[in-house]
Amino acid sequence: MESKNDDWTPDEEEGFFRRMIGWPALDNTGHRVGVVDAEFEDHAGHPDLLGVRVGTMGFSRMHVVPAQFCEIDEHERLIRLPFVAWVVENAPAFDADFEFTEEAEKHVYEYYRKEGFPIEDYGLRERT
Fold first, then answer.
1. d(CA 86, CA 83)
2. Burial of 116 (0-12, 13-18, 19+ CB in 10 A)
3. Which of 18, 98, 110, 116 is geometrically suited to a Cys-Cys bond with 94, CB 3.0 to 4.6 A?
4. Residue 41 falls in which region: left (phi positive, over 0), alpha (psi -120 to 50) or beta
């Protein structure tokens, strides 16, 4: 099982999450939260965020989660999120074609920090 952790930077694997679109996303208790529906690039063009479609067909919304702490299970073809379901279900939501601005990124990261997660603003730091 692969895991994105503190040693990973989005620059290393642009497009890494695109192949996981359609995979189930589980919360940290193992319950299905939704389906990975998009890979979002930050305002600098780096894949930092995932769109997870939550809800039933016709009533679903795509909520954004930081990719940095996701665990990827290639064998089971699923992603484990380090959050409980309600955190994802209440996270900021955007359309799949949304292009992130610095303000939108800050909004997403601030939400997860407010919920107690040590999320780093990968998209907002200077890249070398």
1. 8
2. exposed
3. 98
4. beta
Fold assignment, 2-6+16-117: SH3 type barrels. (2.30.30)
Whole-number pLDDT of residue 56: 67
Please give the torsion angle defined by the CA atoms of residues 3, 7, 13 and 18, in that order, rounded to the nearest 10 degrees.
30
> Looking at residue 58, what is its pLDDT?
63
**Alpha-carbon distances, residue 20 vs 40, 61, 97 (angstroms):** 13, 18, 17
**What is the pTM (predicted TM-score) of this model?**
0.76
Closest CA to 65 of 26, 91, 95, 85: 91
Residues 6+ apart with CB under 8 A from 20: 36, 39, 72, 77, 79
CA–CA dist 87, 85 (Å, integer):
5
What pLDDT does residue 59 have?
67
Average pLDDT for consecutive 10-residue bins of the chain (128 residues)? 46 68 95 91 77 77 85 93 92 82 87 81 43
CA distances from 79 to 5, 75, 107 (A): 14, 11, 23
